[in-house]
Amino acid sequence: MTAAGRTMRTATDGGARASAPAVEVSGLRFRYPDGHEALAGLDLRVERGQRVALLGPNGAGKTTLALHLNGISVADAGTVRIGHLVVAEPHLAEVRRRVGLVFQDADDQLFMPTVAEDVAFGPANLGLRGAELDARVDEALAAVGADGLRSRTPHHLSGGERRRAALATVLAMRPDVLVLDEPTSGLDPAGRRELVDVLGGLPITQVVITPDLPFALELCPRSVIIDGGRVVADAATPDLLADDDVLRRHRLELPFGFDPRAVARQD
Amino acid sequence: MGAGHSHPLYVHAHSPTHRLAPEVKVTATVAFVSAVAVTPREAIWAFAVHAACVATAAAVSHIGPGFVLRRLLVVGPFIAFALLIPFVGSGDRIDVLGVAVSREGLWGAWNVIAKAALGATASILLAATTEVPRILTGMTRLRVPAVLTAIASFMVRYLEIIAGELGRMRTAMAARGYAPRWLWQARPVAISAGALFIRSYERGERVHAAMLARGYTGTMPEIGVPRASGLQWWTAGLLPVVAWTAAVTALVAPA
User: Fold this and answer.
1) What's the pTM?
2) One-letter-per-residue 3-state SS of B18-83
3) Do B210 and A109 touch (CB under 8 A)?
4) CA B8 to CA A36: how far, in whole Å?
5) Using CB atoms, which residue from A96, A110, A117 is nearest to B215?
6) C-alpha to C-alpha distances, A22 to A18, A50, A98, A206, nearest whole angstrom
7) 3-state DSSP call for residue A110?
């Protein structure tokens, strides 16, 4: 798994200048057609190789932000840069290769008859064919430990298998940045554990949207709270989760009996 | 979606027909159905040849007669209509079981029933051995305009998504004691149809966003389906050639 991850890293390093951050969002504004302002001048910088958790209440603008990171939604104002590329035409195709978006509902992401074909969908859109395409599929399935799911129908997989298959469909494009929207939703504790292991072993930049604070603590050294379409807090995850005032103000809740300081001391 | 063995028309098996490339099967089906369509109705022997062709195809595909007959019910309305023709048709009359019927009408009924049944059987065999996305791949390879296949593939996808949503909504309604029996109890069904539309529409938007996120540009990439070999074309072409030979013989040399 890590070996496959490492080859992915070397394959993608050539593309971007070392100095540019992986993701740079500045002054991003977006209003939905119904008038609701989802993003109200959001700024965020994510360094290469960093894992950042995006926390915040429902409706804070987290998913909307994710859709802007690869140009699915187009901002009213402000810019998003991936490496040195601005997210806009003419390089939307390259941006979408570099930013792998894993959707909240894996059923939205898996639409081909078999897992292997679904994993091949992205790289095939990049123009890969034949043995090269097969190698990509193998590499991505191996990276998430899903070799055995190859010929299965996505709709007959368990929640955890579906989540890993969805992750593989994105890894097959060898992204520089992985954006995950609530990856633990609907997973049982064992599926959640497997996901932490897989994500923790991938040496690429990760932006993880999650309401699951222990998951954020385990996976991401840095956390950002988004509320009302803006970044309202940005700190090391253990410090942020220890700040009861900030958590309460933004409707974030630790599980009953969970003490982030105790977890931090154990490490 | 849930294409694959969850689709009611598809039979999961590993027959030689299942292994044929989709473009070959689509071409063979269209060629066979058009041969049936042009066969003159008086050439009963030619229809026997056509029937033998579909029977052979069904046997090679490991599809049982029960499966085909149950799905043939779809042509039932046409057959019911065709059965009326002998009674309302004009021209000279003959006696069948003591009832005077139109000779012309009898031929008309036979023509509709035989051609509908043979054509439908061929389509049923195609659908039973080829998953819907594969049929669309085949159509793309046969140079059917990409816009049409894209619309068809989205329709297939949305239909299955809607069926899934509908199933869950019905379960949710049944779980809260809703068991409609009379027409005036259908109000919640009508209301839920609206909700279903919104939910399906939003789901469709998310699926499309997920496709765009992975570089989708409007045409499905061809993956995982090997192209037809020359041998496949020859094998699959056999039955349509037999059918066309029968049809043409019947046309130029009426019995």
Assistant:
1) 0.71
2) HHCCHHHHHHHHHHHHHHHHHCCCCCHHHHHHHHHHHHHHHHHCCCCHHHHHHHHHHHHHHHHHHH
3) yes
4) 43
5) A96
6) 9, 9, 10, 9
7) coil
Angle at A132 between CA A127 and CA A138, to 5 degrees: 115
Alpha carbon distance A237, A218 (integer Å): 9
C-beta atoms of A108 and B214 within 8 A? no
**pLDDT (tens digit per residue) in B172-221:** 877 787 777 777 777 777 887 888 888 778 888 888 888 888 888 877 77
Token pair 């990439």 is found at B221
Check if the beta carbon of residue B134 is closer than 8 Å to that of residue B206. Answer: no
B16 touches chain A (CB under 8 A): no
| Confidence grade of residue A62 (pLDDT, cut at 50, 70, 90) | very high
Residue with structure tokens 């689509």?
B26
Q: Does ipTM top 0.85?
A: no
B188 touches chain A (CB under 8 A): no
Burial of A243 (0-12, 13-18, 19+ CB in 10 A): middle
Using the predicted structure, report yes or no on whether residue A154 has a pLDDT greater than 90: no
The answer to whether B163 faces chain A, any CB pair under 8 Å, is no
Higher pLDDT, A46 or B74: A46
> Pick from A101, A109, A117: which is nearest to B224 by CB?
A117
**Rounded distance, CA A87 to CA A25, Å?**
10
**CB-neighbour burial class of residue A37 (10 A; exposed 0-12, middle 13-18, buried 19+):** middle
Residues whose CB falls within 8 Å of the CB of residue A164, separated by 6 or more in sequence, listed in order: A144, A145, A146, A149, A194, A195, A198
Query: B185: which DSSP letter?
Result: G
Query: Mean pLDDT, to the nearest integer, of A252-265?
Result: 81
What phi, psi does A147 have (nearest 5°)? -55, -40
User: What is the structure's pLDDT at A141?
Assistant: 94
Is 80 exceeded by the pLDDT of residue B150? no
- C-alpha A10/C-alpha A116 separation (Å) is 24
- Give the domain CATH number at A249: 3.40.50.300
Q: How many domains does chain A have?
A: 1
The four Cα atoms B104, B105, B109, B114 give a dihedral, to 10 degrees, of: -10
B157 inside 8 A of chain A by CB: yes
Residue A9 belongs to domain spanning: 2-266
Amino acid making up residue A124: A
